[in-house]
Amino acid sequence: MSLTDRLRRALAAPPPPDLLPGDILEEPGHPLTPAAVLVAVTRRAEPGVILTVRREHLRTHAGQIAFPGGRIDPTDRDVAAAALREAHEEIGLPPASVSLWGAADPYRTVTGYSVVPVLGEIAPDLSLIPQEAEVADWFEAPLAFLLDPANQRAVEAEFKGRMRTYYEITWEGRRIWGATAAMLVNLSKRLGPWT
């Protein structure tokens, strides 16, 4: 069974008990803001995942690597609609070009978002155009590499007086970390033992 078939099946299964729930909140007690990201998997013999590089001048998560996505707007019908809208706004990905598989497990970010990863498949080599104000660049990284636990490193660092653990994945000199890496770790946990 292919990796993409395994991933599609894993989305329909009950979540494993060891999923990462999320970060310690900067401001506990505040309600979480609903958000969604699109995990766009390319239809290749060796599928990849589309990731964006945020612009350096942004107020939050400047320069970080992320899935296309953002907060859910009141006009969004559901999490999938929000993820598709955001991917269209950020990288020009037409919503009709995504074959949706389903939603994965919400992840709580340190900044107070509850982010739902929405997974879907897209054709390879689409002409994607970064939205100039928000996205500096985009790239495709191999799905198998990102989901292999051997490439997911737990790191400890002090943040605002507390020791925190986060994950990072380094691919071709690009550092994928924080919530994006944690959501990939959770997808790996859904797949079960890596073979």
TrEMBL record:
SUPFAM superfamilies: Nudix (SSF55811). Keywords: Hydrolase, Magnesium, Manganese, Metal-binding. It comes from the Bacteria. PROSITE patterns: NUDIX. Its cofactor is Mn(2+); Mg(2+). This is Nudix hydrolase domain-containing protein. Residues 1-23 are annotated as: Disordered. Pfam families: NUDIX. Residues 31-167 form the Nudix hydrolase domain.
